[in-house]
Amino acid sequence: MVTAIVLATALGYLVIAACYLATRWRYARIRRAGPRRPAVGPEDLSPFELGMLAGGRQRVGEVALAELYLSGRAVARGHGMVARTPQGGSPPAPLSPAPFARMLDARLTAGRPVPAEQLVRVAAKGDPAVAALWRLRRLGLFFAPERLRRVGGLRGAAWGLHMLIGVAGVASGGAAVLWAMVPKGERIDAVPLVFAVVLITYPFLLYLADRLIGGMQGAVVAAALVTGAAIPVVPAPRGLAAGLVLLAGWSVLNGVYRWTGGKLGPRTVAGDALLAEARADLPGPEPVDTALRATALLGFQALRRRPRAGRVPQGPACAEFAAVRSFAAACGSGVGRPNTGLGGNFAGDGGSGEWGGDGAAPPAARRRPQPD
């Protein structure tokens, strides 16, 4: 039985890896056949369109939230909450003609904090975001959905099977803990107590792994650790040893997925070239525009990190950008998502968002740029 499970799972790994490699090869061909030089420059795109190009729909919402904050209409309350700025201070600065920040402003009411991630989703899922997405497609910076449908469908099916095997591995980790903790001579009487202990400890390990590593990879690592710890104490360790090998193979397969581009995004080579040009020449016509463009290129997740050479860019040297950086930290870890994959690493429609908890965050002071 154990041999059959190992062989079937190994065969599944080979099929999934072949799908990852084949879809990456086909995706590279599609990108080579697509637009290679942008028809416009970074100055022809608004900060919101630049955010869509860099990080998808959710990045658009982050730029809108940053504009709302810089205009003096919103303030972070900590723990991922945003509220309307109290009345009585200086009048807020005018918003840009784009409707994104206005949509968020309409959701804020005095005295009622709103989760920052909820505001970001409002801007990300609105019709203006769809209009920005289609403009980027017409400019040749994004592929049309039908160009990537077959590649994305095959890769998505392989990824789904990959995750399903990971879920089975995580469940087997719980079974390994249960098997190891039941005393050999009291397997019936001790079952209720052991179940209680497992339900307390194993979910905590999964939560800890999710905080340290994240995603299914963290859960699989936790399952591998408890499986390896159970091998010396179970009467028949052969099955657990085979499970440990399969969990290691799952992690290797996950590395293949990331090495081949992760979730292949819709950005064309021309879109990559325009982003590189935007990063090389970031300053905008005024400090607020510069801060919004930097937010569009980096995203809230990068803004929360301490700037480090070669990893996290320093960003423009203006007070507005420093204010947005502190605001992003106060909004908590629920806002922002990485953009590390080839072609953007977000879904073909511009991204749907992957949200975590609010997290503990310090409050940020209100900041509004002073008129010249």
UniProtKB/TrEMBL annotation:
Chain ranges passing through the membrane: 6-23, 157-182, 188-209, 216-234, 240-257
Region (Disordered): 337-372
Compositionally skewed regions (Gly residues) per UniProt: 341-359
Keyword match Protein biosynthesis: no
Top-level taxonomic group: Bacteria
Keywords from the named record: Membrane, Transmembrane, Transmembrane helix
NCBIfam families: near_uncomplex
Protein name: Uncharacterized protein (TIGR04222 family)
Species in which this protein is naturally found: Streptomonospora nanhaiensis
